[in-house]
């Protein structure tokens, strides 16, 4: 059976959010929250726009999704994000009891996986590498342009 809405489809949606961040001179990270194969929240980094170091794509998406559901738990949801979440975002995802996390590019310097999956809720399933090359290239180009 052909599945129209798969991990690649939803990661492409997160990637479009990352491109919006790129165009706004924000670090290009995008996220979408999916529940029952429906996007319930979209976000990208807004740290520069809001002068708020906590305005990561994941944090903005969490807030929007919880508000939309009227619930502080996302245990039946999947977060798609173009970059491995940082420790702050992983902690927030743990508190939401996120059902599943799918990320594209690894973040060897700031990603939560340096500390192991223990930062997430024990029931959260983690998958990574979806559209990894595209996500990495967008990030590389962003920083390359700024270092000229």
Can you characterise this structure?
- The longest helix has 17 residues, at 7-23.
- The mean pLDDT is 95.
- 40% of the residues lie in helices and 20% in strands.
- The protein is of the alpha/beta class and 148 residues long.
- The protein has a 5-stranded mixed β-sheet.
- α1 packs parallel to α5.
* Strand residue content: 15-25%
**Helix-residue proportion:** 25-40%
What best-fitting shape do the alpha-carbon axes yield?
globular
- The string of secondary-structure elements, in order, is HEEHHEHEEH
Side by side, the strands of the main sheet go: 2-1-3-4-5
- Rg calculated over all Cα atoms: 14 Å
Structural class category: alpha/beta
Q: Report the uncertain regions.
A: none
How far is the N terminus from the C terminus?
48 Å
Give the SSE map:
Blueprint: H1 7-23, E1 30-35, E2 38-44, H2 47-50, H3 57-69, E3 77-83, H4 87-96, E4 100-105, E5 125-128, H5 132-146
In short:
With about 150 residues, the chain is of the alpha/beta class.
């Amino acid at each position: 059976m052909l599945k129209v809405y798969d991990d690649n489809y939803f990661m492409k949606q997160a990637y479009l959010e990352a491109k919006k961040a790129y165009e706004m001179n924000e670090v290009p990270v995008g996220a979408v929250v999916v529940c029952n194969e429906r996007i319930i929240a979209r976000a990208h980094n807004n740290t520069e726009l809001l002068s708020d170091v906590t305005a990561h794509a994941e944090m903005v998406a969490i807030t929007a999704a919880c508000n939309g559901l009227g619930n502080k738990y996302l245990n039946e949801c999947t977060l798609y994000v173009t970059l491995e979440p940082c420790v702050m975002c992983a902690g927030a995802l743990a508190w939401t009891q996120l059902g599943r996390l799918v990320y594209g590019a690894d973040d060897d310097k700031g990603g939560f996986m340096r500390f192991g999956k223990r930062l997430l809720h024990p029931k959260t399933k983690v998958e990574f590498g979806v559209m990894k090359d595209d996500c990495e290239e967008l990030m590389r180009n962003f920083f390359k342009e700024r270092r000229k």
